[in-house]
Specification:
This protein is mostly helical. The chain has one domain. The protein starts with a helix and ends in a 10-residue tail after the last helix.
């Protein structure tokens, strides 16, 4: 799967989840708020993109991810239980989760634009390197 496919696949899955959701949402206190969740998800997806770009076996990518994810949670002052509970909660409310992911995608797009502007590269140019 190419770079574009790697980035789009999670959003396709999310889109399928959205089409199935319709429950009314009341957010419990233990759920990570959107303002903290969006930057955390951005960092997770950037880490995934970095790992997927490397030409290493899947098992090694998995091991590296296992090592990197706790530091991402720590950076955002969120523990694993809070994160897992938040993801499980929003899985029940896919329309709300889709709204969160719109913000995640917007932030990733901004960062991609910043990198392209800084380096003078356009999408797909890194494949030639």
């Amino acid at each position: 799967m190419g770079k574009l496919g790697t980035l789009i696949f999670p959003f396709l899955i999310l889109g399928l989840m959205v089409s199935c959701g319709g429950k009314r949402m009341k957010v419990p206190e233990y759920i990570v708020d959107k303002e903290k969740l969006v930057p955390l998800l951005v960092d997770i997806h950037l880490t995934d993109a970095l790992l997927n770009k490397e030409k290493i076996p899947y098992t090694e990518k998995y091991e590296r991810a296992i090592q990197m994810y706790p530091s991402i949670l720590l950076k955002h002052n969120i523990n694993r239980v809070e994160f897992d509970s938040t993801i499980r909660f929003y899985a029940k409310y896919p329309k709300e989760f889709a709204l969160i992911y719109e913000d995640v995608l917007r932030e990733l797009s901004i960062r991609e634009g910043d990198i392209q502007q800084t380096t003078g590269m356009e999408e797909g140019d890194e494949e030639e390197l």
